[in-house]
Design a protein that fits this description.
This protein is 71% helix and 4% strand. The protein has 13 helices and 3 strands.
């Protein structure tokens, strides 16, 4: 049972201590893509601890399942885990972890269904307001994210992700933005679509909604909302310049990124300052170190689960 307890303890530490330290760090503003990787690996490590704990708890609770799990294992591996005689503790742990896993699946399915319905509704509204041209009038070379222009005096731009992704701008945005600024805005929104940021946001929202008391999931949701915007800003800045991107964001009073929720729009002044200051990226060794640390979290959980068995082999 030592491996099971160690996994639960590791999951608890990763879900409580690591998020607070990472949320207070300043370097993610300079490396938003790397920060997204670190947050994703942290959440994966927490979930992996839960899944492996469920596997070991089920093996302790059900002798038949334990025989199946350790089928073909060398002599002494099953005994090294000390699961025999721990049926009561195993049943309790397995029931709690299984309920958590089921609730996670339900929350994710509900969030995906809700997001898909909302996306379908927005696509239908867009088709009504701006019908697509007949096939005979469309160019033979298909564009990955077609641009749609809506008649609206309010300067806005947003993206609709999904299989039929669209980039949408209003006539107000076309009038207010220069050509370079408009290109920066479209690059920003195209970055959201091509990086599948909506998938990441849906998963983060599902976990935070399903487990409101778990700090790592709520912090993950909040950080994803900010970091995806910074990552898209950097994509636009690399192609069209930091000043141009900052001007596009400032001139439209943040409405150019209207796909953002209100809490993200409130970050726009800080995003403009960040683009204008142009802080340098982290040194390569630091980036490599954080990447290895991120990958080490789920790998550490897997090694911790396998440690008793490996100790009997070496």
């Amino acid at each position: 049972m030592t491996a099971l307890l160690d996994l639960l303890l590791l999951g608890l530490l990763l879900a409580t201590v690591a998020p607070s330290r990472l949320a207070r760090a300043r370097w993610p503003e300079r490396e938003p893509v790397l920060a997204l990787l670190v947050w994703q690996m942290l959440v994966v490590a927490v979930l992996l601890c839960c899944v492996l704990s469920l596997l070991l708890a089920s093996a302790a609770a059900l002798p038949s399942w334990r025989a199946l799990v350790f089928a073909g294992a060398p002599t002494g591996v099953e005994d090294a885990y000390g699961l025999a005689g721990a049926e009561g503790w195993g049943r309790l742990s397995a029931a709690v972890l299984a309920a958590g896993g089921l609730w996670t699946a339900v929350s994710l399915a509900r969030e995906v269904r809700s997001a898909r319905a909302e996306r379908g509704h927005r696509h239908a509204q867009l088709v009504r307001r701006a019908p697509e041209l007949p096939d005979s009038l469309t160019p033979r070379r298909r564009v990955r994210e077609p641009l749609v222009v809506l008649e609206n005096l309010r300067p806005q731009a947003w993206s609709l992700p999904g299989p039929q992704a669209r980039l949408v701008v209003t006539t107000g945005a076309l009038q207010q933005l220069s050509d370079r600024e408009l290109a920066a805005v479209l690059s920003h929104e195209r970055g959201h679509v091509r990086a599948r940021h909506h998938w990441l946001a849906q998963c983060a929202q599902a976990l935070a909604t399903g487990f409101p008391g778990v700090g790592v999931f709520s912090a993950f949701r909040d950080q994803v909302a900010v970091l995806v915007e910074l990552a898209a800003d950097d994509r636009a800045a690399r192609r069209h310049g930091r000043v141009t991107t900052a001007l596009a964001l400032a001139e439209l009073n943040s409405e150019v990124f209207a796909s953002c929720p209100p809490r993200q729009l409130a970050q726009s002044p800080a995003r403009v300052d960040r683009l204008l200051l142009g802080a340098p990226r982290l040194p390569v060794p630091a980036r490599l170190g954080w990447t290895l640390a991120a990958l080490a979290a789920p790998l550490g959980a897997a090694l911790l689960a396998a440690a008793p068995g490996l100790s009997t082999l070496f």
